[in-house]
């Protein structure tokens, strides 16, 4: 995939997440996707995202930075949201929090095959 | 700067850190460098790194992934080290820990002008 193809595929993936279109997630994520080195598969990936939106009803993925060097695209995502109870083991309980995620996605045959993510959980703890 | 120039400059920067060559850090980092949005300057940057090596005598920066899309280069760094007492507010006390950092570096005129970093502090806490 070219840089343009990956960038466009990635923006479509983020849009899919933001409209919670779980029926189409398999169009963006490979069957045997890995997350931080572990095979979780597209079903595990979808389950993780559904759970994220359950914990954070107003969750939205906002791209602050997009860096594409095929087959990898790296992104800094910004979240500004109000998790309803516990998030990352922290009692957020409806408080508005802002935090970032720095994440790498490796594409293969048009889909995300590997993800390496770090979420700034310490930033959330510092806001409580 | 081209992709090749940034990648080479970046590998030289990492080598400079690993040999703790603080006298040459200003060759790699801009005077008014920002770190996660705050201007800390090259002096603040150097101070932060000197403190990191003080807390972790066997600290080494290992590049697991390098993604360059000028003027930004993103890196996943792996640390496998034995912090001597407290690290990220956690009582590590000489235990060997492994953790990652996902970080973006924006280059300007041959030097790092902005850094957006997230260190996986939760991974360190989970190993204690």
UniProtKB/TrEMBL annotation, chains A, B:
<protein>
    <submittedName>
        <fullName>Ester cyclase</fullName>
    </submittedName>
</protein>
<dbReference type="InterPro" id="IPR032710">
    <property type="entry name" value="NTF2-like_dom_sf"/>
</dbReference>
<dbReference type="InterPro" id="IPR009959">
    <property type="entry name" value="Cyclase_SnoaL-like"/>
</dbReference>
<dbReference type="GO" id="GO:0030638">
    <property type="term" value="P:polyketide metabolic process"/>
</dbReference>
<dbReference type="Pfam" id="PF07366">
    <property type="entry name" value="SnoaL"/>
</dbReference>
């Amino acid at each position: 995939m070219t840089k343009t193809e990956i960038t466009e595929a990635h923006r479509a993936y983020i849009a899919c997440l933001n409209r919670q279109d779980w029926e189409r997630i398999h169009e963006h994520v490979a069957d045997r996707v890995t997350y931080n080195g572990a095979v979780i598969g597209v079903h595990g990936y979808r389950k993780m995202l559904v759970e994220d939106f359950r914990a954070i009803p107003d969750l939205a993925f906002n791209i602050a930075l997009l860096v594409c060097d095929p087959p990898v695209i790296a992104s800094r995502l910004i979240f500004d949201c109000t998790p309803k109870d516990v998030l990352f083991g922290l009692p957020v309980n409806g408080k508005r929090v802002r935090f970032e995620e720095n994440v790498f996605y490796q594409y293969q045959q048009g889909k995300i095959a590997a993800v390496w993510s770090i979420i700034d959980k310490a930033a959330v703890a510092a806001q409580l």
